[in-house]
C-alpha cells in the first residue's frame, strides 16, 4: 500500500460522511440494552452474557422486568422519570443488576422510540470520592484570571482525577483548526503545547457529536468491539448511538490514534453558549479505563471550567460592549449630515478603532468613499463592493482572509488582509468596513496537515497522518482573527450607525422636499417677476415712444431706462435680493450718465438700505431725474449743480430731496410725458409713499417720502479708497468674435461692436463653432458669454489666449471669484449689456492701467 498526497480527483470527504453514530457496535468495557417505551427489549450488545449473564438472543423481545431484579428496574424507571429534554443521561452508580452480584455503574438516556441502558462494571473502592474533589480543584482554576493560566490548572486537575499520561486543553480557532493552549504530561513525553491541528482532524459529524454527547472514553484502541443485535430495527434502520456512553470507535479515528502512539483516550467538550469552544483531550500510552463516576466528575469539572472561561471572556466582551455603547452615544453628534461625516471621519475612525482594534477604516456612504489608515484605494474598494453586497445579510460580516471572498484582494493584502464589514443602510448599499493588515504567522502543525491518500480494497481513500512531528508552515494572506467580542461590539456600533444614517436619509428626504418646495416657490416667484419685468418693458416701449423725436432718440431713451432697471437688478442680486444701499443706487446712476460731471452732484445725509421693491422703483425714478437734469436741467451746461439730501423722519420714513440750481431758467413742460409720470406716480402708487415735483424758475425741485417699512439703517462704511480716474473711452477696430448662445443677444452684441468701430463682428453659438472660427480666421478681439447653456466658454478663452486675442466676458451672474480666477485679466461685464457698458469693458481691456477684475454694469 503506497501513500500519496491527494490529487483533485480524490474524494477527500469520505471521512466527513462516515456515519459514526450508526456504527452498530459498543466497546467491550460496557454492555447495552435498548428498550421500547413499553420496556420491551429491542436491541442488546453481544457481550450481554459476559457482563450480566444473560443470553443475548433470549433477551430480545422480553420485558426488562423479566431480565433484571425488581429493585434495579424500579430504580431505572425512577431515574428515567427525571430525564428532561436537555438534561443528558440519568446516572446510577453501584447498582445491582444481577441480584446479590457485582455492582454496576449505569447510564440511561431517551431515544426516539424508547430508552438505551448501558452498564459498566464498578471497579472503584468505596474510599474514592472524585465528586468531592471537583470544587477544590475548580477553586484553583478560579484563582487564575487569564485563560492560559486557567487552562494549565484545568489540565493538571483532570490529569490528577483520571490518571492519563497526558491531558491537553485544546482550543478551536475560527477556521475550526485547533491549538493546544495548555498541557499536563508525564515526564519524558514530547510536549504538544502550541501545536495546531487542522480542522479536518475532527470532521463535522464528530463536532456535532461532541456537542450532543460531551464526554467520550476510548479504553483500548486495539479492543474488539461488540456488535449490537439485531443490527437493524423492524423498520430497517440501525440503532442510533449518538448519545451512547460505550459507542464503538470509527476505524479511521482508531488508526489516527495509533499513528500518534495513543492506546487510550478520553475527550470532554468545553462548550460555551451551545458551541464548541474547545476540548479537554486525554491520552495514554497503554489501555486505560476510567470508571463512569470519575468520568462524570471530570465532565462536571469541565462544565464549571467552561463557565469560568465564559465569565472571563464575557467580562472582556462587556467592557468592549460598554465602550461601544459609549461611542454609540457620541457618534450621532459627529454624523449629523454627509458633510459632517466627511469632516469628522478621521476622528470617527480613531474612536471606532479604539473599541474594535484595526489598522484602517473605510466608509462607503451615498456613493462617496472615505478612508483612514491602511485601507484599499478607491478603485480597489470598488472591486470589493460587489463581494461585500453578496455577503450582506444585514449583520456584521467578518473574515480574516479577504481573498476568500475577493481573490483580487491579493493586490492589497499588505494593507488589508482581513475585514469586518458593517452594513449601515436598510438595503445593500452603504458600509463601514474595518481592515486589518496581513499577519504573517508561523504555524507549528502536529505533522503535515495534508492527509495522505492510500489504495485500499475499495479504491483510494484519505488516511490519517502517519507522523505527528512538528511541521512548520508560514501562513500569509491572513489577518489577526476577529474575536467574538469584537464582532459583538461592531454590531452595537452598526446599530448606532444605521440609526444615524437613516436619520441622515430622513433629513435628506425632508431637505429635498423642502428644497423642492423652495424651488417651486422660486419658480413661481421668478415667473411672477418675469411677467412683471416683461410687462414693465412693454410699458417702457410703449410709453417712451411719444416723447421721442426720432427713432434714434427713442432707442436711446428706451435703452437708458432698461439699463437703469438692469443696474438696479444687479445691485439687488449682489445682496441676494435683500435690502440694498440707496447711496449706491444714486452713485451708480450718476456714474452711468454724469461721469464727467460727478463733482457737480452733492449727496448729503446718512445712507440707508432700501427693500428690493423700493429699490427697483427708485431706480427708474432716479434714472429719470438724472437724465432730465443732464438733458434739460442744471447739468446740461457747465455751471449748474444738483443737491440730493437724505433725511430720516422720527417715524422712520425717508425723505429724499432733489434740488437743481445754477442752470438755465426752467420752464414747466407743456404736457406730462412718461418720464414725468414715472417721477410723480411710481412712489405713491407702488410704495404708498409721497412724491412732489416742482418746476421752479431757478431749477427743478423734487421731494419723495419712502415709508419706514421699506427703509433700514445701513452699516457704517469704513474709509473708502479714492475713486480711480476712469480711462478715456477707446475706439475699437479690426475683426471681432461674439460667442453667445442666444441669437438675438449675439446679433445685438455684434451690432454694438460694429458701432464702436469694429470692421466686422462674427457670431458663434457654441464652443465647437467658436473654435473652428478661431482656427480659420484672424480676430483682433472677442466678446464671450461665460455660460453657453450646457457648456462654458472656457475652451474658447483658452484658445483666444493661445492666439493672443484679448476678450471681454459677459455674464448674467455678476462677477464671481470663480470667473476672475478662471480668466485672469479679462474684464467682466454684466448682462444685459449696452453700448456704454461694452465700450467701458473694452476700454478697460485695452487700457494697460485699468483693473480688468472690477465688474462693470
From TrEMBL:
Enzyme Commission number(s): 2.7.13.3
A matching Pfam family: HWE_HK
Gene3D superfamilies assigned: 3.30.450.270, 3.30.450.40, 3.40.50.2300, Histidine kinase-like ATPase, C-terminal domain, PAS domain
The keyword Phosphoprotein is annotated on this UniProt entry: yes
Record keywords: ATP-binding, Chromophore, Kinase, Nucleotide-binding, Phosphoprotein, Photoreceptor protein, Receptor, Sensory transduction, Transferase
GO terms for biological process, alphabetical: detection of visible light; phosphorelay signal transduction system; regulation of DNA-templated transcription
Molecular function GO terms recorded: ATP binding; photoreceptor activity; protein histidine kinase activity
Matching PROSITE patterns: PHYTOCHROME_2, RESPONSE_REGULATORY
Occurrences of domain Response regulatory (ranges): 735-846
Catalytic activity: ATP + protein L-histidine = ADP + protein N-phospho-L-histidine
Residue ranges annotated for the Phytochrome chromophore attachment site domain, each copy included: 146-303
UniProt-recorded name of the protein: histidine kinase
Organism: Limimaricola pyoseonensis
